[in-house]
Amino acid sequence: MMRFASLGQAALVALVVVYLLAVYLLPSQVWMGFTINALAMSIVALSWNITGGFGGMASFGHAAMYGTGAYASAVLQVQFGVNAWVAFAAGIAAGALMGAFIGALAFRYGVKGSYFALVTLAFAEVLRICASAFEITGAGRGLQLTLQPGVATLQFNNDRVLTYTLLLGIVALVMALTAWLKYSRFGAYLVAVRENEDAARALGIDTYRVKVTAMAISGAFGGLAGAVYLQLWLFIDSSVVYGVSISVTALIGPIIGGAGTVWGPLVGTLGLHLLGEGAKTALHGAPGLNFVLYALVLIAALRFLPQGLMGLAARIGVLGRKGGDDA
Amino acid sequence: MLEVRNLTKRFGGLLALSDASLDVPEGAIVGLLGPNGAGKTTCFTIIAGFTRADSGSVRLDGQDITGLPPHRICGLGMVRTFQIVQPFAGLTVQENIAVGAYLRHESRREALAEARRIGQRLGMGALLDRPAASLTIAGRKRLEIARALATGARLLLLDEVMAGLIPTEVTEIVGIIRQIRDEGHTFLMIEHVMQAVMSLAETAYVLNYGKMIAQGTPQQLVRDPAVVEAYLGHGAAARLQEAAHA
Ligand SMILES: Nc1ncnc2c1ncn2[C@@H]1O[C@H](COP(=O)(O)OP(=O)(O)O)[C@@H](O)[C@H]1O
Ligand SMILES: [Mg+2]
After folding, report:
1. What residues form the membrane-spanning segments (chain A) (predicted)?
2. What is the mean predicted confidence (pLDDT) over B237-245?
3. Domain assignment of residue A279, yes or no
4. Cα–Cα distance between A245 and A294 in angstroms, integer?
5. Residue A210: which CATH number?
6. What is the pTM of this model?
């Protein structure tokens, strides 16, 4: 049973749900294609939200996990002929390992705040360069999956409605896991680490372990996002999946929507995509314009909406109930 | 219960602790006194595992815990509070206490129930759903104790929980601490203000410039010339004597 802090939050969530269902009914396929992209990106936003939102460890390099998930899956399928399902699972695992590795290294040396953001960015850049250098990762050419639609190959590109439904399912699953984490002991510990690390340590929390575990979980979601991208487009290259724009998309959605909430990353990512698409249409598709717009929205959000859209909505029509909320 | 032996700690050229030892027997309330900058907080940070001493050892229930990380020490039943209170500002009072309670209660429902119970016991029943950031200084000091207690620790190290409180609040906290002790907990408490400790501690140690200069009942200590000098400056004891005889 969902509980919300306010009518505003309930309305915002309802709006998103109605939109996502309405996409099935809209006559134009354009909406569905567009929303598929937004949903795919919201997975990496949900990934960032675990560490950046709940844990207060803002990364600027979530492409490191995203790209690793995509590449692990692609290399296994293209170079080793591994089954797509197995490769997909391996992509998730590889993302988790990469997250844990970056976390273990960074937190071992007490890296925090903007230094942590820079370390993650550096990792993503190094990985990008490596992927474009080695033959096994397709070097500068990238990796292309053989087009072979079917359940065994995890390729549903010929069925848009099915693709959309599967993506909805994946996003719902990641959000359910996020909600579960939020209400677990681990979630409480993660927030405690964000709020005050010394107090957390005094109360018996192994903060290093909590942070590394958070990076592993976030990495698993990030790897999942990358593996999903691969199955959607059947082609990856280092400048895309390890690119800065992935890292930016990962953090901007949660910050606009509400970091450290279950719905925030989806709300923010969808909102931004709609805004970006609207502007593109209005201004006849000037390239890169959506990022200029994102930057403006981000600045405005950081200035006026410290808790994002979910935080804003939470203040509208507050329900007379005590305790936390499920959103 | 707690045996601290010969702790020495340097910060650059500053000798913050020099060969300091103390004992806390089970069930006692022991005071750690001394003027500002004497090294009391440093002593706590070392005992609780936040900093390593240059030399010396700490034993808890006979087990050597020197150099263990804070979370392990907390798991063994000893927890510290902070002189500069450290609430989880974005959480409610109950959620703050629950973070401590999670150490022994894995389920959220149990941790929150335990947090409620402890909050009520510390007289914070009406504040449980308030954000911790909205608490007054007295409330925050209580929250520090509540969170520490929620971990299930048997030995609590309290760092100046009375500082900054008005007399009626001090009286309340004194009552609460005495009650918790009677339920089987042990305390080592730092107080800068002598009067606060006088009414609680059976024994107290006095630190000055990193050295343990005295140990005894609070009543003995206030008559100890070395202690009086530490607090009031060189020659103060002699002047007081003269004044008393004059
Ligand atoms: N991390 C630190 N680095 C350098 N000096 C410190 C540090 N912590 C404490 N000190 C110094 O050590 C001395 C003892 O400090 P402290 O233990 O906080 O005293 P007290 O709690 O008795 O007032 C002070 O002179 C203080 O400035
Ligand atoms: Mg101090």
Report:
1. 30-51, 63-80, 86-107, 161-181, 212-236, 242-275, 287-305
2. 62
3. yes
4. 11
5. 1.10.3470
6. 0.91
